[in-house]
Amino acid sequence: QVQLVASGGGVVQPGTSLRLSCVASGFTFTDHAIHWVRQAPGKGLEGVAIVSYDGNNIYYADFVRGRFTASRDNSKNTVYLQIKSLRDEDTAVYYCARSPYAIASAAYFDNWGQGTLVTVSS
Amino acid sequence: EIVLTQSPATLSVSPGDRATLSCRASQSLSGKLAWYQQTPGQAPRLLIYGTSIRATGIPARFSGSGSGTEFTLTITSLQSEDSAVYYCQQYKSWPPGRAFGQGTKVEIK
């Protein structure tokens, strides 16, 4: 069955960096773009980044402003999200989600990982 | 930029009743609207895409309808496990950061 397993979250201090990972299994990884979506505690869902099937096209939400870098390694069925200069407002559960499309485009999400919690606190 | 507005914010419904959730878009979505269900501590689950197409494994008591800028998720014969927050999402356009509505919480009386 389709599985997306996100990891790499934790409690980190403001200004530091973190790399999140999302390992996929149960489907042909290169047939799908992967999205990162986050959810602050008690809040709604917010799209963060989109990575195309080959990793050559990556798009970010406006609020990212150069602090986030998404990538993928198809040899490892893994998508990454590097976050620099972490801020209090980055505290959230970060989900990876599968697009039904291969290209990086607006899409719905037919499968989601369980999420990984990032807590930015001094 | 497309903005989605969901109503009501909270809906309290008795078991066996029908729940009707609304999602309004600031411009036409050309049918590119999805609905998700999120229970506490869990990831969202896709219910409906393309306005009215049920995702794999979703019971027939969940149905979606609408067009243009007005969309509805209807849940018939409500069950206790339907207690959740429901989000609509547009996938017609960018940016990805604002693709979701703010959510409707469905409570079972």
Short recap of the structure:
The complex is a heterodimer of chains A (122) and B (109). With 122 residues, chain A is an all-beta fold.
Description of the molecule:
The complex is a heterodimer of chains A (122) and B (109). In chain A, 0% of the residues lie in helices and 48% in strands. Chain A is mainly beta and 122 residues long. In chain A, the strands form 2 sheets. In chain A, strands 2, 4, 5, 6, 9, 10 and 11 form a 7-stranded mixed β-sheet that branches. Chain A has a 4-stranded antiparallel β-sheet with strand order 1-3-8-7, with no helix packed on it. The model of chain A has no long low-confidence stretch (mean pLDDT 96). Chain B has 109 residues and is mostly beta strands. In chain B, 0% of the residues lie in helices and 48% in strands. Chain B is built from no helices and 10 strands. Chain B has strands at 4-7, 10-13, 19-25, 33-38, 45-49, 53-54, 62-67, 70-75, 84-90, 104-108. Chain B has a 6-stranded mixed β-sheet, with no helix packed on it. Chain B has a 4-stranded antiparallel β-sheet with strand order 1-3-8-7, with no helix packed on it. The mean pLDDT of chain B is 95. Chains A and B meet through strand 5 and strand 10 of A and strand 5 and strand 9 of B.
Topology (elements, then pairings):
The complex is a heterodimer of chains A (122) and B (109).
Chain A: E1 3-7, E2 10-12, E3 18-25, E4 34-39, E5 45-51, E6 58-60, E7 68-73, E8 78-83, E9 92-98, E10 111-112, E11 116-120
Parallel strand pairs in A: 2-11
Antiparallel strand pairs in A: 1-3, 3-8, 4-5, 4-9, 5-6, 7-8, 9-10, 9-11
Chain B: E1 4-7, E2 10-13, E3 19-25, E4 33-38, E5 45-49, E6 53-54, E7 62-67, E8 70-75, E9 84-90, E10 104-108
Parallel strand pairs in B: 2-10
Antiparallel strand pairs in B: 1-3, 3-8, 4-5, 4-9, 5-6, 7-8, 9-10
List its salient traits:
A: 122 residues, mainly beta, four-stranded antiparallel β-sheet, 0% helix, B: 109 residues, six-stranded mixed β-sheet
